[in-house]
Amino acid sequence: MKKLLTTEQIREQYDPDSILKDIEKFYEMNLEKLISCLKNEKSPLLKYSINNQISFLESRKKDDVIINKVASLLKDTIYFMMLSKKERTNTTQRMRRYYSTMLKHQSERINMFLDDPEIGAPRHSIDSNSKHKAMSQVHNILSIIQKSLNYEKKCRVSLARSGYLTGLQISMGKFFFYLNKIGMSQKDQISLVQNLFDDFDVDWDEGDRESIKLSLQKPALEYFKKNQSDLQQLSGELFSSSINDALLSNLIDHVLLLNRRVRRF
């Protein structure tokens, strides 16, 4: 029997926590600089947050809400913007290997349990009522989790090869979606990204306006929309008449949390 690694062993192998901690640290260290860039008088963001029909004070408050919202959507992006091309590629590849390995080993471990329906409740020929309700519930719950793991494994097969822009593309999807939501024109979106990249001296010499549009904005939105569609589809597939609604709802929340974490890189 081949050895299946525990999640702790896989974590020790890839050390994802060091990257996750750096993301938090980089964001905290550079948040003031980020907000300053977003608030700069040349920032196109200000044109979309000021409403001439409200007072100046209310307008400033609205500005701050939108600026803080945009800043919060750029947490992972700040980290990737401050890495070199090679570091960005290595980070994405390492995190993807971690999650792929974790999904594989957890799925196989659950399979081993589900393949033996008598675990914890072995049948006896003289006992026709040996089926244990609690163990049946365990099987039902693990079947739901297994379905979500297999769904993620299947989706990862179609992932594009990771490169030095992948981390930026994935992390900026919700950012671009929000800019569209507040009605920002594509021209201003590109200008805003250019300002950010200039201020943070991003390692991407080819990052002109057309490259930002085609190599960053377009794939970022495509990834974000596909992810949202997958989340919705997965939620609809996770149904079991053997599990009560409260427990099933809790399980779905758990599954979607895993989905968001796995698709962060």
Q: How would you describe what is shown here?
A:
This protein is mainly α and 265 residues long. It has helices at 7-14, 16-39, 56-72, 75-81, 85-114, 133-157, 166-171, 173-181, 186-199, 209-237, 245-262. Helix 1 packs antiparallel against helix 5. The longest helix is centred in the middle third of the chain and has 30 residues, at 85-114. The radius of gyration is 23 Å and the shape is elongated. The two termini are 32 Å apart.
In short:
The protein contains eleven helices and no strands. It is mainly α and 265 residues long. The protein has one domain.
Essential attributes:
single chain, mainly alpha, elongated, 265 residues, 11 helices, 0% strand
State the helix count: 11
Taking the alpha carbons of the first and last residues, their distance comes to: 32 Å
Q: Tell me the β content.
A: under 5%
Total strand segments: 0
**Structural class by secondary-structure content:** mainly alpha
Secondary-structure element string: HHHHHHHHHHH
Q: Can you tell me the number of structural domains?
A: 1
